[in-house]
Design a protein that fits this description.
single chain, alpha+beta, Immunoglobulin-like, six-stranded mixed β-sheet, five-stranded mixed β-sheet
Amino acid sequence: MSKARLFATGLLILGSVFLVSLFAPVPAAHADTISISPPKYELLGNPGDIVSEKLKVTNLGGSDATYNTTVQDFTASGEAGGVNLVDPNSPRTTYSLAKWVTIEPSSFTVPAGKEKIVNFTIHIPQNAEPGGHYASVIVETAGAPVVGGGASVVSHLNSLILLTVSGKITNNLALETFQTTQSFYQFGPVAFNFRTHNNGNVHEAPQGAVTITDTFGHKVAELPLPQANVLPSASRLVTFTWDKKNLVGRYTASLVATYGSGQTKTPLTATTTFYVVPFYLVWTVVGVIILIILLIAQRKRFKKLLHAITSD
């Protein structure tokens, strides 16, 4: 290859690298450049009350950032605890809250590595319906989304507000499922599913424990029930695990929990049974049985042979 062709090839490669770098996607910013605290508020109020709270916003990025705050109602999304933000133009529902909330300031700049306190106030109407009302304070980077390679660089986080307005509260939580994810295990850990549906008008967070006993009725473990809010008209599935690995036999898990507010607590109870049978143990037992059968058969043949010899 001549020097001229080598030079031309080098220019072509350099040009390609330049074009690739020029049109490469710009990395998108992530929500981890913002921190808000607390992530959730559980508040109580009476009709006509004014409830005030503070939200701390921290800029974890390497440069100053301007943020906007908004408030939207939310509903449950699925059974895993997700939320669905409601369009601000949607009609109000029994559980709406956003229209009662004002934020100050609604737009602000936070230097890199610094924090800002945001105040919000809930004006509960005199005719507010008793029970739960739900909204989310949304903090997001200000300005139009900057797009690079099709990715938006706007970062945002939500802080949930769960407000209970006093009055005629209906606590009605139905236990739909309490069972292990399998009936038989070879070994631990063992996973449990706990599903409830809220037929009341306020969010519930059942508290309790699961006691596990072995084949002989001896208590071998007690697991705290993970706390999870269940919104009105929603179902919630909580999965938790008994982490012990070396298990064998029949086990019984007994759930004892309560839910409700104030001095009025309603019990939730259920029982489920599961088995842990390691395959190696099964094959060992089968092998021993086969060996015993072979030994018995061999002994019978030996007796017949011995009888035949002595008879002659």
